[in-house]
Amino acid sequence: MARAALPGRLNWQLATVVELRDETASVKSIVLDPPQWQGHRAGQHVDVRLTAPDGYQAQRSYSIASAPEDEHLVLTVERLDDGEVSPYLVDELTPGDELELRGPIGGYFVWEQSQGGPLLLIAGGSGIVPFRAILRHGTAVGNPVAVRLLYSSRSLDEVIYREELIGLEDDGAVEIDYTLTRVWPDDWHGHRGRIDRELLEEVAWEPSEQPLVFVCGPSGFVEAAAQALVENGHATKRIRTERFGPTS
Amino acid sequence: MEALDGNSIGGALLEYFGREMTTATGSCRHCGAAWQIAELMVYSRAPGAVVRCPSCGSVVIVLVEVRGSTQVHLDDFALDQSEAV
Amino acid sequence: MSPVSRGFFGRRRPVADPSRVPPGQYVTSDFPVLSAGPTPHTPLDEWSFTIQGAVEKPVSWPWVEMLSLPSEMVTVDIHCVTKWTKLDTRWRGVSVDTLLEAVQSEADYLTVRCDGGYTTNLSREDVSDGKAWVAYEYDGDPLEPEHGGPARLLVPHLYFWKSAKWVRGITFTKDDEPGFWENYGYHNHGDPWLEQRYQGD
Q: Is the pLDDT of residue A6 over 50?
């Protein structure tokens, strides 16, 4: 039986854009100051809503890229060529602008210390965004569990947070395996091609270690990776997935 | 057309129920398979969001925004007793 | 009302004669794909269109027969309840009038049935006298699966959720029986010019 929505427990709020950071040629991080923010958990997302002068509205969801301990709320957005919202966020938004958002949202695709580990993070493209929050949160709480990240991108230029990830690895917060699927440098020492059972077998924890696995990226990527994990013997109950994709 | 998952309707459900629902467990009334809402398949490029069981494909939940107000039809997803709203 | 997002205008919209745009609609130049589920793929040699229910005798056309029926090229404007309108869309299809000539029915209403289980309801009046087609070509090419191919219903004078994709038949009914979206609060009739989006509008 349907009921009308309850008066907002989850309200739309305005956040001021503090800074914009280029991550790659088509990806930008948006640093925000939301005065009414109550905090969040690593892995959650927000809904962003844009309103045009004629009243037209468009809404999208974006994973939070910042850890709960970070000073500002950060979103990382990839410009989609035929997108309606992402080109605005990446190309038009400037410091001082206000962005309407609601959140934080999500209790399934989150990680905190109490859940234990070891942790296996599998990212496809912009699926890396919620993992930045998880990795930064892990560091903030003293890296209590071992973490491995398998990050699939089309090319090296499209690896988001490249410098930051190198730094996290140097600090011992995470072991990272990169795989490039479309083009790679001649002297590339990382993996090549899409994630498959063989690659997972090579880089993932043994099923006997019972890792907590998070998979994030486009629907097809998530589907394939999750299936490969299960075929390799990982328990479905230990795998959490979040699919990204165009919503309208 | 590729589906998203129940995470993508987290905001609408949170607004409607007043609490986090993507971890809510229940079962498909058509085939009995058990899921957390986050694991369900969501088709949202539509006049509403159509949520389907990953096992049998049947429609289990439908969200429609009628005159600016979200309505959630949990008709064919049987929430576990502990999740009663 | 939300504050305006500085510099946001939505997609660039083609200039259009306002008399062709129903209230609350925005004109688009692309053709958005909307769906309530995965795209079905019925092989053409298994496809048929059947009219049944409150009829004297059910009638069925397999694909080859449907394509051999007299067809029309029509250019129509289409209006989706999600607020986009697309002008001058070109289709080829068989007029539902042609199909209805093959059946006898006293019933005033019908339910449209589709692969994947989608349904919508219409009055007989709404699919008669040149108002509806079983369309199998869009813009000169075979209708693509994501847009409802091999064939969809085309009822352009009503909101486009009534133009059911992956159509497989019509069931005549004595009473107006709400289909999929109608059951969830959308209007039984759906006239975009009267902005009949939801029950009670």
A: no
Average pLDDT over residues C155-176: 98
pLDDT digits (tens, 9 = 90+) for A96-110: 999 999 999 999 999
CA of C41, closest CA in chain A: separation in Å?
19
Q: What is the pLDDT of residues C139-150, one digit of tens each?
A: 999 999 999 999
Is residue C182 included in any domain, yes or no? yes
Helices A162-170, A129-140: inter-axial angle, 10-degree rounding: 30
Q: What is the total count of domains within chain C?
A: 1
Rounded CA gap, B36 and B56, in Å? 15
The per-residue pLDDT for A5 is 44
- Rounded Cα–Cα distance for residues C72 and C95 (Å): 7
- Mean pLDDT over B22-41 rounds to 97
Q: Which domain holds residue C126?
A: 22-31+44-194
Residue extents of the structural domains in chain B: 4-79
Task: Give the closest of A49, A92, A248 to C2, CB-based.
Answer: A49
Closest alpha carbon within chain A to B63: A2
3-class secondary structure, A60:
strand
B30 contact C CB<8A? no
Domains of chain A: 13-105 (2.40.30.10), 113-244 (3.40.50.80)
Under a CB-based contact definition with an 8 Å cutoff, are residues C180 and C120 in contact? Answer: yes
Alpha carbon of C3 to those of A7, A90, A229, B64, C94: distances in Å?
A: 20, 20, 45, 24, 48
Q: Which of A59, A243, A247, A248 to mutate to test the interface with B (most CBs of B within 10 A)?
A: A243
Mutate to test the interface with A, among B1, B4, B7 (most CBs of A within 10 A): B7
How would residue A248 be classed by pLDDT, with cut points 50, 70 and 90? low
Which tops the pLDDT comparison, B19 or C87? C87
Within a domain: C16: no
What is the per-residue pLDDT for B1?
A: 58
Residue A242 and residue B14: Cβ atoms within 8 Å? no
pLDDT in tens, C149-158: 999 999 999 9
Cβ of A6 within 8 Å of Cβ of B17? The answer is yes
CB B30 within 8 A of CB B85: no
Name the residue among B43, B64, B66 with its Cβ closest to that of C37: B43
Contact B71 A242 (CB under 8 A): no
C67 inside domain: yes
CATH code, domain with C51: 3.90.420.10
Which residues 10-29 in chain B show a CB within 8 A of chain C?
none
* Angstrom distances, CA of residue A167 to CA of A25, A149, A176, B8, C15: 21, 14, 11, 31, 51
Nearest to C198 among B50, B59, B67 (CB): B67
| A84 interfaces chain B, CB cutoff of 8 Å | no
Chains touching chain A through at least 3 C-beta pairs below 8 angstroms are B, C
In a domain, C102, yes or no: yes
